[in-house]
Amino acid sequence: MSFDEAKKICDKILDTVGQYFVCKPPVLRKVLVAALANGHVLFEDYPGLGKTLLARTFATTTGCDWKRVQFTPDLMPSDITGTKVWRFNTGEFSLMKGPVFTNILLADEINRSPPKVQAALLECMQERQVTIEGETHGLAEPFFVLATQNPIEFEGTYPLPEAQMDRFTLRLSIGYAETREEELAILSRRNHWQQDDPTGFIEPVTTSDGFAEIQRRAERDIYVDQQIMQYIVDIVRATRESPQVTIGSSPRGGISLMKVAKAHALTLGRDYVTPDDVKTYAIDALSHRVILKTKYSLEGGIDDRAIIRNIVEDIEVPKDFMRK
Question: Is-contact 238 315, C-beta < 8 A?
Fold first, then answer.
């Protein structure tokens, strides 16, 4: 697959998903970029905004399998990863795979389950493998977690620990339709389909293997100049030095920011990263990795996204970086 072919497939994915899912175009691109960066997305959003529809259409368009897990208080880790069961006909244990054995996993309301269930995804999201009763099994390629949590209802929830939040490449929000025309388009399309799931109308743009190849191209073939890397490091380190922050971004945050900047460059047809690629994703890649001091988290007035925005605005942008 050539670089131009990879870019054309990305354009077709965005166009096809956009025909079935109505939202701000940058949101679709960011979901695609996170997937190309071999990362995961956490949606903090209100109910009924189409997160399941987005997962379905994205999976079908990219030729990937997908599964959905509704996180509830009674969920067990084995309900996600799988377990071994005794087969009387063979006289031995066999693996019953859980829903993580897929390409795209929709973890709906992930904070509704206790920490031990949330922790079942840690190894899956980072190492792309799962250990069941001492035996390690590799996951499919690509593997992409799309998780959701409600930002307004906290009764009966278990806040995601820092280690879990750090596994998510981007934190996004779909948000409500901005205009009357967009909301009318949602109703019109639903009336045209005559059903809630339109994936039967979608022709896949590529295959799971083809999408994995684009992931590899984004990783291998996009040039990142030393000046750009230093720019990313300056941003990440500034999150730790902010007087409003108790804990700043981890090194994994800087790696995630670099990877999504590379994937974003590919979707735009460039084989090198610019400062604008970094700035576009800094807030989404780093804001969920910082912890505000108690004074600011209780009093309000400023949030983690505003802090990252201010940091990006204050740091000098490199102008003499090399292009491939």
Answer: yes
- The alpha-helical segments, DSSP class H, found in the chain are 3-20, 25-36, 51-61, 78-81, 115-118, 122-127, 162-165, 180-193, 208-220, 226-241, 251-267, 275-286, 294-299, 304-314
In the chain, the number of structural domains is 2
Spatial separation of the C-alpha atoms in residues 186 and 230, rounded to whole Å: 43
- Report how far residue 232's alpha carbon sits from residue 226's, in angstroms, rounded to the nearest whole number: 10
Asked if residue 198 is part of any domain, the answer here is yes
For residue 90, what are the CA distances in angstroms to 85, 94, 98? 11, 9, 21
186/278 same-domain check: no
Which residues, at least 6 apart from 15, have a Cβ–Cβ distance to it below 8 Å? none
Question: Which of 181, 203, 220 is a domain's end point?
Answer: 220
In this structure, is residue 38 part of a structural domain? yes
Q: Cα(first)–Cα(last) distance of the chain, in Å?
A: 19
CATH number for position 309: 1.10.8.80
> Residues 183, 143: contact at Cβ < 8 Å?
no
Taking 70 as the threshold, does the pLDDT of residue 202 lie above it? yes
**Domain range for residue 239?**
222-314
Q: What is the pLDDT of residues 19-78, one digit of tens each?
A: 999 888 889 999 999 999 999 999 988 888 888 888 889 999 999 999 999 999 999 999
Q: Are residues 31 and 102 in the same domain?
A: yes
> Which amino acid makes up residue 105?
L
d(CA 262, CA 264): 5
Query: Do residue 183 and residue 115 come from a single domain?
Result: yes
In the block, residue with structure tokens 């529809």: 53
